[in-house]
Write a structure and sequence with these properties.
The complex is a heterodimer of chains A (347) and B (75). By secondary structure, chain A is an alpha/beta fold. In chain A, 32% of the residues lie in helices and 16% in strands. The relative contact order of chain A is 0.12. Chain B contains 2 helices and 4 strands. In chain B, helix 1 packs parallel to helix 2.
Chain lengths: 347, 75
């Protein structure tokens, strides 16, 4: 009896990786999934912070995919290693701060390392030739193969017939004839295959899986780097970019103003790391203050914070400022009129 | 069989899942792990991870601020 070959599948939580893994399972391959967490993954359902989103079903789509497939899933924290990919992308950024090609190369190289450490035979991805402008262009697919070091142990079941045969195909571990020849941005072939397999309720195909492809998020990241005068970040920094309104009224400080109760609760976890502004006389947001502020700056920032409270139309509201060193001051200020909030303060 | 705890508070999914996964890798079959989280998403994600990896969720509780999941480690 031949030894069952083993493939490690990059599982993003999207439809393509789900289908690619299923095609391999149907060929009798032992498949286990691997999912990398960069800190920028939308999969982290960080939107669940917001209370208004609580009625939406919360699930991690990579885990959901693994459960549909009946395979193990290994979720790996690559937050630290990923910094170099984002800060120094050899192949540059896409439309926003998304280093998609470098990211794919890095993830496949990590999968190769995992494959070797765990005695697996090859790697599969859900890539489709021509589907994405940066990482899945026909001329760039070989770059991923070469620079990741995966070489011909990287199989793309959804578009394999458009590419040269890989080791698993040449060795007869998988039947090339049963692989697909999908290409381009048309999603209909994937949807038809999903229907054939009976997959329903899969993640929205065009949903995107990375905050770095989002312009608003990328703008906040660039602002963070400019304000610090260096390209670097910690996990907390990139988490906070997903939460609240971000305003920079002066170059030397930024305000993160919560938008509702869920964000208020989340931001409270950062009270020891930041100076804060709380509205005491009315319901209102918790505001984190990033930067070193004078008393005058705090007065100004508090008027902005008060603008977002239920006391916005009051003559004055009571605010409590707590500096990072623990010093507290409570005072009354008039909320800033909407007309004085400058649009360019919003990041 | 021994009882262990894991504090995964103030981290957002999938970090509580990753912390659970890494902690369970250090435990023995039959050990019990009690994970405390503040991300309500953990209430779905950790049991999902347990199901696909064969571990048993013995209990899960949710209150306003925290989620507690009790897991028995599979062999």
């Amino acid at each position: 009896m031949p030894i069952q070959k083993k493939a490690v599948a990059l599982i993003s939580g999207g439809l393509d990786s789900l289908l690619a893994a299923r095609l391999m399972l149907d060929q009798g391959i032992h498949v286990e999934g691997i999912n990398f967490y960069t800190g920028f993954c939308v999969e982290g359902h960080t939107h669940a912070i917001r209370k208004k989103d609580k009625k939406k079903p919360k699930r991690n789509n990579a885990l959901w995919s693994a459960e549909q497939l009946g395979i193990k899933l290994h979720i790996i924290d690559i937050i630290e290693e990923y910094k170099d990919v984002l800060i120094n992308p050899k192949h540059g950024y896409g439309a926003n701060m998304n280093p998609c090609l470098d990211c794919k190369i890095f993830m496949v190289s990590k999968a190769k390392q995992w494959m070797e450490e765990n005695g697996f035979d090859f790697i599969i991805t859900g890539e489709v030739m021509g589907q994405r402008p940066m990482s899945q262009r026909k001329d760039l697919l070989p770059v991923v193969v070469r620079e990741s070091g995966a070489d011909d142990r990287l199989l793309r079941p959804l578009c394999a017939k458009n590419l040269a045969a890989t080791l698993p195909e040449r060795e007869g571990w998988v039947d090339r004839e049963q692989l697909k020849d999908f290409s381009g941005r048309n999603r209909k072939p994937q949807m038809a295959l999903a229907a054939e397999f009976g997959f329903e309720d899969y993640a929205t195909p065009a949903g995107g899986c990375c905050f770095l492809t989002d312009k608003n998020y990328s703008d906040k990241l660039v602002d963070l780097w400019q304000a610090r005068n260096k390209k670097d970040y910690e996990l907390d920094d990139i988490m906070l970019l997903k939460v609240g309104r971000h305003l920079r009224p002066q170059p030397h400080y930024k305000l993160i103003v919560s938008r509702e109760d869920g964000e208020n609760k989340f931001l409270k976890g950062y009270k020891k790391q930041f100076s804060t502004i709380e509205i005491k006389s009315h319901n209102g947001p918790l505001t984190l203050v990033d930067g070193e502020l004078s008393d005058e700056d705090f007065q100004f920032a508090s008027r902005i914070a008060a603008r977002f409270s239920q006391g916005r139309d009051a003559q004055s509201v009571t605010v409590k400022v707590t500096r990072k060193d623990g010093e507290e001051k409570t005072f009354d200020i008039p909320p800033m009129p909407a007309s004085e909030i400058q649009q360019e303060w919003y990041i | 069989m021994s009882h262990h705890t894991l504090d995964a508070r103030n981290s957002l999914c999938p970090m509580p899942v990753i912390k659970t996964q890494n902690k369970i890798a250090e435990l023995q079959a039959g050990d019990v792990l009690e994970v405390t989280c503040t991300d309500p998403g953990a209430l779905n994600d950790i049991p999902a991870w347990c199901r696909i990896n064969g571990h048993l969720v013995k209990d899960s509780l949710e209150n306003d601020d925290e989620v507690v999941i009790v897991i028995q480690v599979a062999g």
